[in-house]
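Dear support,

Our group has been running a series of protein-ligand predictions, and this particular one with s-citryldethia Coenzyme A is the one our PI (initials K.S.) wants archived with full inputs and outputs. We had some confusion internally about which version of the output was final, so please treat the block below as the authoritative record. The input we submitted was:
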Amino acid sequence: MTSEHKATISFSDGTAPVDFPIYKGSVGPDVIDIRKLYGATGKFTFDPGFLSTAACESEITYIDGDKGELLYRGYPIEELAVHCDYLETCYLLLNGELPTQPERDDFEMRVMRHTMVHEQMTRFFTGFRRDAHPMAILVGCVGALSAFYHDSLDIQNPDHRFVSAIRLLAKMPTLVAMAHKYSVGQPFMYPRNNLSYTGNLMHMMFGVPCEEYQVNDVLVRALDRILILHADHEQNASTSTVRLAGSSGANPFACIAAGIATLWGPAHGGANEACLVMLNDIKQRGGVAKIGDFIKEVKDKDSGVKLMGFGHRVYKNYDPRAKLMRETCYEVLGALGLENDPDFALAMKLEQIALEDDYFVKRKLYPNVDFYSGIVQKALGIPVEMFTCIFALARTVGWIAQWAEMISDPDQKIGRPRQLFTGPTRRVVKPMAQR
Ligand code: SDX
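Confirmed final output from the archive:
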């Protein structure tokens, strides 16, 4: 990259001023290239939490936090959620363009032909307790996938990268469904390749060997939209983990397992499960009448209580995915005759109160993707502890696309941040008697 713009840092400690190039993206904030800072000054930048740090160049997903805009390869999420399905969105994120019909058919055929996992994988499950959290199972099983595919682990080989991507996309629904079935003590359901990607997911999760599973197209479309909304999101915590793991040359299965582990946190992908737990807590306390007390607790810093499903590092406006998720809520609850779902009514009242409260307005805290997704998933029959597995399934394509972009970047180096050291300086070990 070249640039005619520059930033100059001058120092009060006598260090000579240094010029740094400024690069402009196609849209969004400019970046200051500080790569030569340490060599020129012996100083590091300091940015824990990466509040002002761009870790990479990317062409995949763009977020405008102030406008509440989300684009996958330039397409607004609002358009993709209405005009496309999840597999088309996967093709777009991986290849940069929406597929033609023949391209889409070929992609779907390749993915749906890899949906089975090695039969030995089933034996990993028997080692887990039945009440193991399904995310613990998913982290373990996805990492273990690399043990079965020695034929495609050369990450510098584009064909190996493509095969691994297809295998991961194809097998995540199977592993997620197996984790669910194991937790409820039902037999695993083999994939049905004549069903759609998301129809097959619902078949494997909710079907049983004793009878034909009837796919409900309205519910499949709703779940497919949830997958689209969660497919990618720029350099969030789990994606940054996948990129960092990939920068060491780790195989794609290990990198995605690292992403799943990061997504599990309640501050990240675990928020949808935590949001339902929060709504249940408010219901236990007395429901809508007790929302005021709960909000008081959230505002009390010492309580440690957060309004789960609210706030975002980037969105300082309404998360566009939350709007689409709320619409999907209406559709699904209407289709199921659950218009008066108490969780949905409570969530909408909570949202209304929070959006009128200066504490949240001042901090630009709006509902994020996780606020409504749990309510939709619960209405679809997905157990609360499975919500983050569904998020991980959906985000697998984003992780793969970002990982592949990082691997193909000629400037790519192993990620190795530095630190501000404030610990003890050099000292000697005293004999035990003198300590
Ligand atoms: C996801 O990064 C991504 O893109 C993630 C994601 C994706 O698709 O990959 O969008 C998915 O992770 C969505 C976020 C899901 N998490 C939650 O809903 C958990 C609740 N939210 C918060 O924990 C928080 O908002 C974060 C973690 C999402 C963002 O935290 P930041 O950017 O570090 O903001 P912050 O903690 O510095 O908060 C700023 C202020 C603080 O108050 P003050 O110190 O200024 O007085 O806002 C407060 C915070 O205490 N605050 C909240 C709050 N979120 C922030 N107060 C109450 N409830 C909240 N939810």
